[in-house]
Input
Amino acid sequence: MIEKVRGNTYITDIHGTCTGIYMLGGSRIVMIDSGRYPSDEFMQWLNRERLSVAAIIHTHLHIDHIANTVEIVSKYGCEAFASDNSTERGEYWEELVGCDITGVEDDGSVVIDGHKFDTLYTPGHCDGHMVVITPDKVAFIGDAIMTEDLLKDAKLPYMKDTDISIKSMKRLKSIDDCIFAASHYGIIEGQEIHDAIEANIDKHEELYRQIKKIVVKPHTEDALTDKFLKNIGIWSEEVRNYEWIQSTARRRIRELVNSRALGKIKGTEIIIKL
Output
């Protein structure tokens, strides 16, 4: 069920999200995130091992990181933490009903039973994204980057703000002497973290290049979005129904417009290539 990383720090897979477990001693644990879907198997494992959750520290509050939070907080009476900047609370309020979230200041820390968990504020994927570093120097980096294996097949990684995200990726290089755990998915050690950071940055910059390459005449924003999605191989009529895909593509286009790297918006729709 769990895999040891270093010292008292372990990872487990809860429906595709790499989730952290830190053994405080005795039967008490701290979790980093709580998984992608509700997991009877994980809850049964906690019961079987007679473990009690003392706290959940979230890298961010997207749905694939909070799925078991409410049940765990309700059962164990533990505290749940997330970045002060977690605007996602409103976005996924239904999944967090009845669960108070304690804010963590930028680059702050959380102390549980005398054990200190440092954080590094890394926005971009979302406003309230942070890295959580266990006392064993295992850095849970959430969705700041993807492992290179997953990145190869990722056609459009989700980012709320790509430029800010790239700056946060570069901040990861400032974390010394850590083993890294990416939510999607797994352990990254040594020089591999620098390689993974550069691969993620290259991926996002290539997507920018794809957009600029296809703009050879004025487009409406909708038309350019469709053309971009077709160009990277994920467009279909059904894709119009997936708001997160549409909004991710549009945000990248808007970022180029705002930086004047693409052109300007005439009125509210037309994008003009400079």
User: Anything to note?
Assistant: The helical segments are 40-48, 69-76, 88-91, 148-151, 162-171, 192-214, 221-231, 243-258.
